[in-house]
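user: can you give me the structure for this one chain? tokens are fine.
assistant: on it. calling the predictor now.
[tool input]
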Amino acid sequence: MTVTNGAVGALTDTLVTTLAGTPVGVSGAAPGPLAAGASGNAVFSLNTASAGVVSGNGSLDFVSHDADLADLTLASQAITFTGTVTELAVGQLFSNGGGGSFSGSGSAYTLNFGSFVAGSGSTQHDIGVLNNILSSAFSETLGGSFVGLSANGFSFGPNTFTGLAGGASDTGNVLSFDYTGLLAGNYSQIYNFNGISSFTGLPDYLLGPIQLTVNARVTSGTPGVPEPAIWAQLIVGFGVVGGFARRRRALAKRAAAC
């Protein structure tokens, strides 16, 4: 709030401002003495450490001051303070079951579907979202959606929701990997969960994105049939085993002849 000493002239008193009666949670600072025509700001701050409603009354009190005369008390300015301190929603991902392994925390998670032999097939995983704050009258609800391309065999949906209270979770966000017709190789996709924190009567607040990286691998060959490199290793192994068997039979014959 701007405070101005509106008087003019060489003999004008200075204006002294003091602050009185602020409610708990509100602090303020009055401007220093103001000469004729000067302005200054009365600054008020709200402590947001604790959730709840802040309300109450205060005043700016004014005194006209001259070094050679007694101070003159002027009319005060009443101030009404109101405000609500809420707790922002906190998005957290978790596994609700499915193929692959899920890990991570904070703003980065990974879903590793694992390895599949080229051919026809698919797998999926249910990604849950938790509003990780305690439920109270001042906790904000969580909404949002997962954003990312559905490509390279990956698809994700449905994955949009609103109104998730503190401590509640949303499931059924199914992330799928269909490797039908895909060539051998490593596949990866990134999805961002863009969370929105909401409270009745206040503008929505966009939370920082949570990144989910999804990986999968497709190998060549058919189920139950070793790849060429594995076949080569098996043949060498069979040859070594056969050589040992022949040697043992030869030693046995020599021992019998003796």
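assistant: here you go. Helices lie at 228-257. Residues 28 and 44 are 4 Å apart (CA to CA).
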